[in-house]
Amino acid sequence: MKALPVRLEKKLDELLVVLDKDIQHMQKSMSRLNELRGLVIKRDDASLGKLLGAIQKESGDYRENESNRQSIRKELAMALGCGIEEMTLSKLEAMTPECKRAEVGRRKTELKSLSQTLRKEYLVTAKLLSECARFNNKLLTSILDLGRTGTVTYDSDGSAERPAGATFMSMQL
Fold first, then answer.
1. Residue 1: its pLDDT value, please?
2. What is the mean pLDDT of residues 79-106?
3. How far apart (Å, rounded) are the C-alpha atoms in residues 12 and 37?
4. How far apart are CA 67 and CA 70, in angstroms?
5. What pLDDT score was predicted for residue 6?
6. Which domains are present in the chain?
7. What's the average model confidence in pLDDT over 80-102?
8. What's the mean per-residue pLDDT of the chain?
């Protein structure tokens, strides 16, 4: 395939920089999920709060990268004569000269691998949080139902009477 015009080559280089940032973001996201799981297991509320703040800040910064990627994608699609929906890394890889094809292909492969790994990490984290919620629900149910007999009796003035043997418990562990 012949060389790209200078303007297209510049856009392709810009896209490669954006894809590198995407790769870094995915790697950082996997690290954050791993850190989240560790902090949940340790029950470190202060660190969880700091982690949440850092994630919110980074998501705002990452939006700019997403916007840049979409803008470059649109410009490349127009320049190469295809629709924006059709402009994928596979199509771009096929349409670029050999010198850039390897770079695009490497990033495409790395992004695909990272997205599969990130999906697995996300599912593991979601399962952990789901199990924590289920465990906490069971624990609270068993604590709050401890003194209940299932029947309610009332005094002569109409107020509910606690069953004999009902215990009070401190909720602080």
1. 43
2. 88
3. 37
4. 5
5. 72
6. 6-118 (1.20.58)
7. 87
8. 85
Strand partners, 154: 160
DSSP the chain: -PPPPHHHHHHHHHHHHHHHHHHHHHHHHHHHHHHHHHHHHHT-HHHHHHHHHHHHHHHHHHHHHHHHHHHHHHHHHHHHTS-TTT--HHHHHHHS-HHHHHHHHHHHHHHHHHHHHHHHHHHHHHHHHHHHHHHHHHHHHHHHTTT--S--EE-TTS-EEPPTT--------
Tokens found for residue 154: 């009332």
Pairing of strands 160-161, 153-154: antiparallel
Q: Could you give the CA distance from residue 121 to residue 109 in angstroms, rounded to a whole number?
A: 18
